[in-house]
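Severity: low
Component: inverse-folding endpoint
Summary: output formatting inconsistent between runs
Steps to reproduce: submit the following structure tokens with default settings.
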């Protein structure tokens, strides 16, 4: 009797489905597509925020470097945020350069090819350079209160005696191209470099005043 039951069980098991049916596969694919559709925007959002943070930290580092070098050497330094005249967005750059300060400084526009940057008999000396394509994150400088003199657009100068810069209300807005996430790098009245969120919607950063 036991042998007959065992044989019947084996015969029945041969007719059981060994894999997924087409309906089950389609349901699984649909669920996976929904999960991807929900997750991808969140991932893209997170990536842009990370890029904005990284870029803002780089800009802050350049400004702190210029300030520290000025204090250490008592030498006037220029920080340049020249806007790139390139009209093709895929080729345009956001850039910042720290140079020594001399009368002739057109050779140090930060968007120029690196091989030609700060070259020439009377060109300033290039101390630090940071630039990146404007395809995913861009940064632009402004000084609503004035740049501090004629022919000084998009340039600031740190001086040891004044403990700050010659531009008033100087700030650099770092913005994600796709989703518009933004941080602002600014120099306050005490000469301290700070980072804030202009829209107040960036976790971990205070809203800009």
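Observed output (run 2 of 3):
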């Amino acid at each position: 009797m036991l042998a007959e039951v065992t044989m019947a069980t084996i015969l029945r098991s041969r007719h059981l489905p060994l894999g997924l049916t087409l309906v089950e596969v389609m349901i699984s694919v649909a669920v996976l597509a929904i999960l991807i559709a929900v997750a991808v925007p969140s991932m893209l959002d997170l990536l842009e925020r990370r890029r904005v943070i990284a870029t803002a930290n780089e800009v802050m580092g350049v400004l702190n470097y210029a300030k520290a070098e000025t204090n250490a050497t008592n030498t006037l330094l220029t920080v340049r945020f020249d806007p790139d005249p390139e009209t093709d967005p895929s080729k345009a750059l956001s850039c910042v350069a720290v140079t020594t300060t001399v009368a002739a400084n057109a050779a140090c526009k930060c968007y120029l090819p690196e091989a030609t940057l700060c070259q020439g008999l009377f060109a300033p000396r290039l101390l630090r350079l940071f630039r990146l394509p404007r395809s995913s994150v861009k940064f632009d400088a402004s000084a609503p209160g004035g740049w501090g003199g004629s022919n000084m657009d998009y340039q600031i100068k740190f001086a040891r005696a004044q403990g700050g810069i010659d531009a008033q209300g100087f700030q650099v807005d770092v913005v994600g191209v796709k989703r518009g996430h933004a941080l602002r790098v600014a120099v306050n009245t005490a000469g301290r470099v700070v980072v804030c969120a202009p829209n107040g919607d960036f976790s971990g950063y205070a809203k800009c005043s």
